[in-house]
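Appendix C: a fully annotated inverse folding record. The material below is reproduced so that readers can follow the format used throughout the book. The structure is listed first as tokens, followed by the designed sequence.
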């Protein structure tokens, strides 16, 4: 298998893992893949030029900001789809939130 074909295969596998909602271990058992192999490709594809492309994600802002700069409900809610939703107070530490979102990638 060529290097590009292998990258394409693993790009699909990593995407399938990320969309599965399963833990790394559970997905690997189901697919017959070593966890270390999945981890290797997840890191490698992030470092490759094509793996670092960003997808545009629609963002819906609901509610008007109040005088305090907080939304109407005073919360931030991110809906990832598939029943996964993150809700935090509007004054959440942005560094912590950014680190959390990077970890979920």
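Designed amino acids, in order:
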């Amino acid at each position: 298998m060529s290097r590009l074909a292998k990258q394409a295969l693993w790009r699909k596998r990593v995407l399938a893992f990320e969309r599965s909602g399963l833990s790394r271990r559970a997905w690997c058992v189901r697919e017959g893949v070593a966890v270390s192999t999945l981890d290797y490709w997840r890191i490698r594809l992030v470092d490759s030029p094509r793996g670092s492309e960003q997808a545009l994600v629609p963002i819906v802002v609901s509610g008007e900001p109040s005088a305090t700069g907080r939304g109407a409900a005073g919360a931030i809610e991110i809906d990832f789809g598939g029943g996964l939703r993150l809700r935090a107070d509007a004054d959440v530490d942005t560094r912590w939130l950014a680190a959390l979102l990077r970890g979920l990638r």
